[in-house]
Design goal:
Helices cover 36% and strands 22% of the residues. By secondary structure, the chain is α+β, with helices and mostly antiparallel strands. It has four domains: 70 residues; 261 residues, Beta-lactamase (3-Layer(aba) Sandwich), CATH 3.40.710.10; 88 residues, D-Ala-D-Ala carboxypeptidase, C-terminal domain (Peptidoglycan synthesis regulatory factor (PBP3), Domain 2); 40 residues. A hairpin with a 6-residue loop joins strand 11 and strand 12. Helix 4 packs across helix 7 and helix 5 packs antiparallel against helix 6. The N and C termini lie far apart (94 Å).
Length: 506
Amino acid sequence: MPQAGPSFFAADPYLEARRLLEPEALGITKTLQRPPLLSPGRSNKNQTTCAARIWGKIDVKILRKFAVILVTCLCVSLWGSASTVKAAYEPDFDVQAEAVYMVNLDTGEVIYEKNAHEKIYPASVTKLMTAIVALENIPDLETEITAKSYIYDEFAGLNVSTGDIRVGQTLTAEQLMYAMMLQSANEAASILADYVGDGSIAHFAEMMNEKAKELGCENTNFVNPHGLFNENHYTTAYDLYLIADYARQIPGFMDYVTTPVYDVGETPFHTYLRWITTNSMMMKSSTYYYEPIRGMKTGTLDESGKCFVSTATKDGYNYLLVVMGAPLKDADGNDYPSSVNKAFEVTKQLYEWAFDTFSIKTVLEEGKEVHDVPLKLCWGKDTLSLVSGSDFKALIPSNYDPSSVQGVAEVPNFVLAPIKKGDEVGRMKLMLSNQEIGTVPLIAAEDVQANALLSIWYTMQKIFNSLWFKYVVMFVVMLFVLAGAVRLIRRRNKQRTRKVRRTKTL
C-alpha cells in the first residue's frame, strides 16, 4: 500500500522548504550584479561597495518574497492533496429538501448531507429538545401538572397544533409528553416548559440553549419550547442530528415517539381524549406508511416547509435522518393538498436508497501485514514489518469489493531499535473513491533488539551533529584562541620590559 506523501511524522515542510530557498542554500551570493553605471565624483571602489550593499539587500528581499510565495503554494498543494472529507454519497435522484443529514447509527458514517450547516427554522421539531430538558428535569413522570391560563395567551388567534388540553386541566408529565410528541400539542410543550422553568418559559428556553451547547450544537438558538416562528429561533440539520441522536438514548424517550396512538380516556373536560401521531409513516392506514420507520418528530411552518426527523431499522441496519424544508408548493407555485407531505416522500426515498445500496463489510483484518518502515540500530535487518492493529469494518456500497479500498500509511521516515511487538508505529488511512472512510493503527509485527555498537555509534553521531555540541566546540576553540592571545600578549609585554631594562642599563 502506498505511503502518505506529507506525513504527520515528517519535519515541518514550510521551514524545510524555506531553508532550501535561502540564497546561501541556492548557491547565490547576496550581490547578484552591480549597477552598470557609476556616479561621477566618487571612487569606483566606494561606489561598487555601496551598490553591492544596496543590490544585495534588494536581491535578498526579492528572494525571500519568492521563497514565501513558493512555499505557500507548496504547502497548500501538499495539505490540499492530503486532506480528506468524510464519505458522503450522492443518491441517483433529486433530494427535494433544503437541508438533509443522514447517518448510519451502526458505524457513525455520514451517508448523505445537504446544506447541513445552514441555519433553518425547526418548527415543531423543536420539541425534541423540549422533551430532552423535560425528561432530565422531571424525576417522576407521574407528577401531576395543571395547565395555567396565561400559557394560552400566545396561541390566541393562531391556527396551531393542539392536544385539546383545557385551562385548569391536570395531567401527568408523562401524558403531556405523549401529547407533545404524538399530536405535536403546542400547549403541552408550554405547560411542561412552565413547570420545569419554575413559571418562566423564557428560563426554560435558556435551559434548552445550555443543553444544545452541551451537545455541541454551534448554530442553534431556541426562544420557545414549541417551535412557532421567531427569527431568533433556529438550528441546522447537523445540530438536529446531534439533538435527536442524544434524545433517542434517553431511557423511555423512544416510547413516546414510536407510539402511534395514546388514549387518555375520560377526563373532567372530555368524554374521551385520544392523541394520534402526526408521523403518518408509522400509521398502517396511511399511504405514507413505511414499516422500517421508528419515530421521531414532524414539523411544519410556512417559513420552514415540511420537516421530519426520523430513525429507521431494516435487516439489522439502523439510520437517523434529518429532512428539513421540503416544499409546500409545486413547481408552478401552487400549494400541495394537505394530504401531501414531501418530507415523508424524501425520507422514504433516502431510506430505500440507503438500505438497497450499503452494507457493512470487513475492509481490513487485525494482524494483516500491510506496510514496512526503514529500521535502524539492528544488525542484519533494515526494515520493520507493520501489521494492522485492529479489524476495520465499514459501511460501503454493496457492489464494492473490499479490495477496492486503498490504504495510505502515515509512518515516520525510520524507526529505531529496540522495538516490542505490538508497539504502535503509525496509522493507515483507508480510502474509498478518494474519500477517507476510517483509520487503523499500524503496529510492529515482531520484537527487534538493538545492536550495542550501532547504538553507541548512532548516539555519538547525534552528539556530534547536535547544536549544543557545536556550541561547546566553538566555545572551546574560543577559549584556546583567547588563551593563546593572552599568552602572546604576556610574551610581548615581557619582551618590552626586557628591552626597557636593557636601555636603562646602557
